[in-house]
Write a structure and sequence with these properties.
Helix 2 runs parallel beside helix 4, helix 3 crosses helix 4 and helix 12 packs antiparallel against helix 13. The chain is built from 16 helices and 16 strands. A six-stranded mixed beta sheet has the order 6-7-8-3-9-10, with helices on both faces. Strands 2-1-4-5 form a four-stranded antiparallel beta sheet, with helices on one face.
Length: 435
Amino acid sequence: MDTITNGDLISTAGICKTYQQPDHAGRLVLDHIDFTLKEGEIVAILGKSGSGKSTFLRVVAGLTPPTEGTVTYRGQPVYEPAQGIAMVFQSFALFPWLTVLGNVELGLEALGVPREERRQRAIAAIDLIGLDGFESAYPKELSGGMRQRVGFARALVVNPDVLLLDEPFSALDVLTGETLRGDIEDLWVERRIPTKGIIFVSHNIDEAVAMSDRIIVFGSDPGCIRSEIQVPLARPRDWSTPAFRRIVDEVYTLLTTVPGRETTRRGSRVDQLSMQYRLPDASIQQLVGLLDALTIEPFNGRADLPHLADNENLATDDLMVLIEALQLLGFAQVGGGDIEVTPVGRTFVDADLLRRKQLFAESMMRNIAFIAHIRRILDERPGHSAPEGRFLGELEDHLSEEEAQRVLETVINWGRYAELFAYDYDRGVLSLENP
């Protein structure tokens, strides 16, 4: 598709979003997002789970107000859902009591479109998206892929200038998702839809490279734009070409490399401290299993990240969590789209169970300040024990209640495996006692 360069469709300036916690402390989810969508562009947004991707999309759609900053659509401020912007959700979001036709007509009805015109446009959108013959069917009669097609028809029937897609293919099986994605790409390339620009959130790196002209990589805690990658490939795109794979590798590297304890645009002490208290939600069994897999055939200590994901049948989000943990522990390092086991990691793999525990403990004490802090407290207290509430409170000074609880559970699981401390579930106490 030839790029159209008539101007900016969407612009955001300094977008911040803070959610209030029950204790009235604010949790910063988005931090100063400056972004522009130009006519003729498809832009993908990638990032770890919880990086604020979907929140940003809802802010752009006018569904969620920003705490700070502005959103403009063709130069006009967006304070609420704007005519000309349509959104497709991951969860289909269909009304079960309405037929396919009724669901697609709904947006037109809200705009006050006369009944006959409404029906004609809805039928045309249903035909366009490949659901001809299912106008009278109810959502419960449809497969997941067909229900998502209804979601697309409902968005396209209002002739949107801008289409916002929130992981629209992730709830579908692989083949169904690929088919629907291909159909949407065809509609865009052949200009069979009036849409001038698309922003879509995805967790699938290949999908993002296949569809987009530009990829925005979000950092997390809080969400911010970490990097931008151009995708200058002609359509249709061959996923197996070296040029395609190079871009995939570049994105994988950005997403799986543990950043330094960098500050956000705000650069506040709270932001820096909160990063120090976060741990990836990775189980010991998965970490050990992935490390073992990396050191045998076909990888022998070094693996291409997309190949590793396919070989181990891991979703991108799951792989990112595990790789972040391995890097944090010093067992692996990432660069150039590859992951390589470090000498410490190889020593761990070759060790027996007892030595593995010792190496894990040493790595945690060396690399994870909060775990070293817990062990120091337990060493110094006369009874060598402390209530979990003490440490949960420290985490809640820097994280949301939900995130603090999750991190503490990870800390306890990792600490118990390494035998750095014991945990009494009934009493909620951490100690140096041998249970």
